[in-house]
Design brief:
alpha+beta, 6 helices
Length: 222
């Protein structure tokens, strides 16, 4: 999400997070349905909502793991080996569909016009058999934004205002974690940014990976 949208989603998570998931999944299906790409939107994929960056700041985004092809009328239609659908196409579709979703939810007036003037970022990368992606995503599904070992060096202060800790952070492009000192109350504030609405499901399944997909005439669930 571009910066102009993050405050809107943070203030309206019950409407904003489903809108994000719907817009992203619909963009993927529409791009795949184009005859220049797969020629079918009958995909199978699942998504995981993330709301955090590496340092616990607010950064809402979705990771999808997608089967490498689509179901055609009478055959399996494999995607290209080096990419699924073009990132540029996905970014244009995603921006348009997110705008439609926010309009339907009554949130569009809250978004700065600058959000629609900038290019949006979508990363679509071939990962082979997906085991590396699954290994990366699995801990975030149930453990939350920070593993216990990443919090170290907490001082023994009697006052929360004076308490500090050290958060181990791996910056983008780096291979090792580095210590980042934080006040304890700032750590708590950042942690609370990622509490989801009651009953919200972080993981969603779509297409032929959805539990309600029909054996014949597959439904596009999600």
């Amino acid at each position: 999400m571009p910066p102009e949208l993050r405050a809107v989603l943070l203030a309206n998570p019950r409407e904003g997070y489903p809108a994000l998931l719907r817009a992203a999944s619909a963009s993927l299906r529409k791009a795949a349905a184009n005859p220049r790409h797969l020629g079918s939107g009958q995909l199978g994929f699942f998504g995981v909502l993330h709301t955090w960056g590496r340092d616990l700041t607010y950064h809402p985004h979705v990771h999808f793991v997608v089967a490498g092809g689509a179901i055609g009328l009478d055959e399996w239609k494999p995607s290209r080996t080096h990419y699924f659908v073009p990132e540029k196409v996905l970014s244009i579709l995603f921006k348009a569909k997110m705008r439609d979703e926010l309009h339907a939810a009554g949130l569009l007036p809250k978004v700065s016009a600058e959000a629609w003037r900038r290019d949006w970022t979508v990363d679509a990368t071939s990962v082979g058999d997906s085991r590396a992606s699954l290994k990366y995503l699995a801990p975030y599904v149930f453990r939350g934004p920070v593993s216990d070992w990443r919090v170290s060096g907490c001082n023994d202060s009697e006052s929360l205002a004076d308490a500090t800790l050290v958060l181990q952070v791996k910056r983008s492009g780096e291979r090792r974690y580095r210590p980042m000192p934080l006040r304890a109350d700032e750590f708590i504030r950042r942690w609370l940014l990622h509490v989801l609405p009651s009953g919200f499901h972080r993981v969603r399944h779509y297409g032929f990976l959805h539990s309600h997909a029909a054996t014949a005439g597959m439904k596009s669930g999600g």
